[in-house]
Amino acid sequence: MSNDSLPDFAGKVVSLYHTHKPDDDGAALCDAHFERQGGRLFLLGAPAPGTTVNNWLDGKTIAVAWDTIDAYYVFDSLKDYLDRRAKAWKEVKDENGNPVFEPI
Q1: CA distance 103 to 89
Q2: Cβ(29)–Cβ(13) below 8 Å
Q3: Confidence tier at 24 by pLDDT (50, 70, 90)
Q4: Contact predicate 43/32, CB 8 Å
Q5: How do the domains of the chain map onto residue ranges?
Q6: Residue 71: strand pairing partners
Q7: Cα–Cα distance between 93 and 104 in angstroms, integer?
Q8: C-alpha radius of gyration, the chain, whole number
Q9: Of 9, 77, 79, 80, which Cα lies nearest the Cα of 43?
Q10: 3-state SS string over the chain?
Q11: What's the pLDDT score for residue 100?
């Protein structure tokens, strides 16, 4: 796949859904971009604030192998993503008191 045919996620939030994983095991990345590593294409970006347990990945870069993605959704902004997520998912606490999301 040439870089000309890759989507441009600059300034956006992209929500990723992985092959053979549950819907709540995706990732939401801000300002993601593509990079080749070891002959494979990866999508790199920062986790959207408020999307990881206790924000433990804030300030880090996440790299996701593009060939593991089944679907992705593009949002115009973090606010757009969070507003729409609130319509489908609610935050609850797991058995250890950590925030997790489940369908409404």
Answers
A1: 4
A2: yes
A3: low
A4: yes
A5: 3-78
A6: 17
A7: 14
A8: 14
A9: 9
A10: CCHHHCCCCCCCEEEEEECCCCHHHCEEEEEEEEEEECCEEEEEEEECCCCCHHHCCCCCCEEEEHHHEEEEEEECCHHHHHHHHHHHEEEEECCCCCEEEEEC
A11: 73
C-alpha distance from residue 45 to each of 9, 35, 62, 85, 96 (Å): 10, 10, 5, 19, 28
Are 31 and 77 in contact by the 8 Å Cβ rule? The answer is: no
Q: State the pTM of this model.
A: 0.76
Please tell me the distance from the alpha carbon of residue 72 to that of residue 62, in angstroms, as a whole number: 15
User: Can you read off the two tokens belonging to residue 15?
Assistant: 């929500």
pLDDT at 44: 96
Pick the CATH number of 3-78 from 2.30.30, 1.10.10, 3.30.519, 2.60.40: 2.30.30
Q: What is the pLDDT of residues 84-95, one digit of tens each?
A: 888 877 777 888
Structure tokens at 64: 């996701």
